């Protein structure tokens, strides 16, 4: 639906401006707060990651303490030297029971790195191989045994300075470990027991130990798979937004941290509500102020609109009262000046249309016809009433004018319909021009068709008129070059064509019998085919030394 009320449009613009400013303010404030909170969240995540690393280091130190004691066990060394797998397994189991390591994995390997206890278990061999390669007395790392992730410490088992094999002590990393780590990070819960922090371990793009529920792990794995480690990633878990972060722990294992963005979302919602409330109050105040302001502006604008509508409908006498001295008042004054100018121009145009043809009037108004003339190829037509003086000598003057005006009106309309202009009326004679001021596709043919139509129209008028008011006409047509333009002085002008082409057309008209149309050879050549005519005997014409070839148009 189009808005037609200026006052309503003004109100909508002002209210829309307030709404836009309110929205921009909300957007800026929201983004600023969001940026600051994201920065703080990023700092918290990195701090938590450092705490994560410290907790991991503490667990490795605890493992190393256990591993050092077992690596110094003479019973284990003796069993390893003896080379009996059953004895070695029994001693290892006994050492585990003595050290109360029921939930700890103990691995014994020979000096080549082959696992002896538990027999055939190769999960820890990479850690042992790393210790052998680096000739290290202490090596930490991760390995996977089945679906279970372990963090372990490897130390060499010696007798004196001789290296007999290696001892690996490892803690399993499960969901319970992840829960303890989350507690160490100070994780609280939000309403609904939704944790603020989730932790976990990522191995081969799979989370193997985490505080996340099993169904949620796949979504986090998919998101982390698309981003490199060390970048913050947004992920939604159980309709709660989180920021995920993964950092390398070594041995193909990554630490995973997820911080909830629920507090941010709640804060942003609160800010949005406050901004909307402030904006609503501002719009109500704006509505009251702008309604009063719009009324004062809209009234003169409405008057101007009504005035413009009346001018469009043709009422050029309409005027608008200037009510103020500002731009609106000056606009009303300019409107009145424009209306006066249009009224005067329309008056001139009405007079001009009656003096000259509309085509000439249009060219004059456009300034395309100058004082002087142009040489143009035109076709000139003269139409004269035969015996008009004798016919009207006994008629009253007003009856003579009425008869003549009816005839001239009919003939003029035909000339205009065929693209010609009436140059002048000379008594009972009409002079018409085809090809000036604007040329047509075939001016000669148009003149011939106009002449035929004029004869037919005159016959119809005679059939409807009493015998004493029936008129006979003769028509002459000639084509050639003539001077066309405004003739006269700079105070009074008349558009016409001059030259021998005009003179010959006039002579042919005088030579035509009643009801006869005579055309020159030049007209017939210019008209082309399609005109029915008969050649007449050449005639001598006053002012021309040679006889003129003449054709009668049928």
Task: Jot down its keywords.
554 residues, alpha+beta, Beta-Lactamase, 4 domains, 8-stranded mixed beta sheet, 5-stranded antiparallel beta sheet, elongated
Notes on the structure:
With 554 residues, the chain is an alpha+beta fold. It folds into four domains: 72-173, Beta-Lactamase; 174-260, Beta-Lactamase (2-Layer Sandwich); 314-354, no CATH class; 369-553, Nucleotide cyclase, GGDEF domain (Alpha-Beta Plaits, 2-Layer Sandwich). It has helices at 6-71, 74-82, 85-98, 125-134, 175-184, 214-225, 262-312, 327-355, 358-366, 388-392, 397-417, 443-464, 500-511, 521-527, and strands spanning 105-110, 115-117, 139-145, 148-159, 162-173, 189-190, 194-195, 197-203, 206-210, 233-237, 240-250, 253-260, 374-386, 421-426, 429-434, 472-488, 493-498, 517-520, 533-539, 548-553. α1 packs antiparallel against α7, α2 runs antiparallel to α3 (85-98) and α12 packs across α14 (521-527). The longest helix is centred in the N-terminal third of the chain and has 66 residues, at 6-71. It is elongated.
């Amino acid at each position: 639906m189009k808005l037609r009320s200026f006052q309503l449009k003004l109100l909508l613009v002002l209210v829309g401006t307030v709404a836009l400013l309110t929205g921009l303010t909300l957007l800026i404030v929201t983004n600023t707060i969001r940026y600051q909170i994201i920065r703080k969240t990023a700092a918290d995540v990195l701090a938590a990651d450092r705490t994560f690393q410290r907790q991991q280091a503490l667990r490795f130190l605890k493992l190393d303490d256990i591993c050092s004691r077992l690596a110094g066990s003479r019973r284990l060394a003796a069993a390893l030297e003896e080379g009996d797998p059953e004895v070695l397994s029994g001693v290892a189991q006994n050492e585990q029971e003595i050290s109360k390591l029921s939930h700890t994995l103990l691995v014994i390997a020979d000096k080549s790195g082959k696992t002896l206890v538990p027999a055939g278990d190769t999960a820890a061999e990479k850690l042992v191989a790393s210790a052998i390669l680096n000739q290290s007395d202490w090596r930490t790392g991760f390995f996977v045994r089945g679906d279970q992730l372990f963090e372990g410490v490897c130390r060499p088992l010696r007798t004196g300075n001789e290296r007999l094999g290696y001892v690996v002590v490892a803690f399993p990393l499960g969901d319970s470990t992840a829960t303890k780590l989350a507690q160490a990070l100070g994780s609280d819960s939000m309403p609904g027991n939704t944790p603020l922090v989730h932790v976990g371990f990522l191995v081969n793009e799979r989370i193997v130990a985490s505080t996340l529920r099993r169904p949620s792990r796949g979504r986090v794995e998919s998101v982390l798979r698309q981003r490199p480690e060390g970048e913050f990633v947004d992920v939604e878990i159980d309709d709660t937004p989180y920021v995920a972060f993964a950092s390398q722990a070594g041995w193909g294992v990554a630490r995973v941290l997820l911080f909830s963005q629920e507090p941010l979302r709640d804060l942003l919602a609160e800010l949005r509500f406050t901004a909307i409330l402030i904006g609503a109050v501002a719009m109500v105040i704006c509505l009251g102020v702008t309604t009063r302001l719009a009324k004062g502006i809209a009234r003169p604008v409405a008057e101007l609109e009504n005035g413009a509508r009346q001018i469009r409908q043709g009422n050029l006498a309409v005027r608008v009262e200037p009510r103020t001295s500002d731009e609106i008042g000056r606009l009303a004054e300019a409107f009145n000046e424009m209306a006066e100018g249009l009224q005067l121009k329309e008056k001139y145009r009405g007079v001009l249309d009656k003096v000259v043809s509309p085509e000439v009037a249009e060219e004059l108004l456009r300034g395309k016809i100058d004082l002087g003339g142009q040489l143009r190829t035109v076709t000139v037509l003269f139409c004269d009433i035969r015996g008009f003086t004798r016919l009207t000598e006994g008629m009253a003057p007003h009856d003579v004018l009425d008869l003549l005006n009816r005839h001239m009106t009919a003939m003029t309309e035909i000339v205009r319909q065929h693209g010609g202009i009436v140059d002048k009326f000379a008594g009972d004679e009409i002079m018409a021009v085809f090809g000036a001021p604007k040329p047509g596709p075939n001016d000669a043919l148009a003149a011939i068709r106009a002449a035929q139509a004029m004869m037919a129209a005159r016959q119809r008028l005679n059939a409807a008129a009493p015998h004493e008011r029936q008129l006979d006409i003769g028509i002459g047509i000639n084509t050639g070059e003539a001077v066309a333009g405004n003739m006269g002085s700079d105070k009074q002008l008349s558009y016409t064509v001059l030259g021998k082409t005009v003179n010959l057309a006039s002579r042919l008209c005088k030579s035509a019998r009643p009801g006869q149309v005579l055309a020159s050879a030049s007209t017939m050549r210019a008209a082309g085919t399609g005109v029915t005519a008969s050649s007449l005997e050449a005639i001598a014409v006053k002012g021309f030394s040679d006889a003129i070839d003449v054709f009668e148009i049928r």
